[in-house]
Amino acid sequence: LDCGHQCTRSCHPDDPEHTSFKCLKPCARRCPDGDHPCHVCCYEKCPPCMIRVKRIIPQCLHEQEMYCYEEASYFVCKIPCLKLCPNGLHKCPLYCGEGCRLCKVIVEKIMPECGHTQRMKCYVPVDKHYCNVQVDKVIPNCGHTEQMECHISPS
Which of 44, 27, 45 is nearest to 36 (CA)? Predict the structure, then answer.
């Protein structure tokens, strides 16, 4: 046979050249991306290899387990990122291979003008956020007090 295996049929006058014969022996080909055999029958086309292998990711040099058919250069590293967010308030919540981007973790920040603590997305600068703590403010024209958000000036 073209595959190198011996024909297992004793007599087959209808197909002496083995043109329609399908070799059912295990595939003898080796996976081109790893050192393991293909796991289909000899006559079948080798599918993407689903064996799990460990490889080094070239972008970060971390070792990761992936399917053999996957290319390490396109793999998103699943090791947690070890960097601090730019504001230094917390560790980055992303994976190493996801790349840096605006951090949307909700954090507490102190507003510089009033000293109140506000919860906001990490990437939002405090000078771009209005303090919405409810406080008593004196109305200038009448002297009464009214509850309103800290950033609002009574008129």
Answer: 27
pTM of the model: 0.56
Burial status of residue 57 (CB atoms within 10 A of its CB: 0-12, 13-18, 19 or more):
buried
Could you identify the residue written with the tokens 């086309």?
45
What letter does residue 3 receive in the DSSP assignment? T
Contact present, 95 and 110 (Cβ < 8 Å): no
Per residue in 128-147, pLDDT tens? 888 999 999 988 888 898 99
The CA-based diameter of the chain, rounded to the nearest angstrom, is 112
Residue found by looking up tokens 């009214």 in the block: 146
Residue type, 105: V
Length of the chain: 155
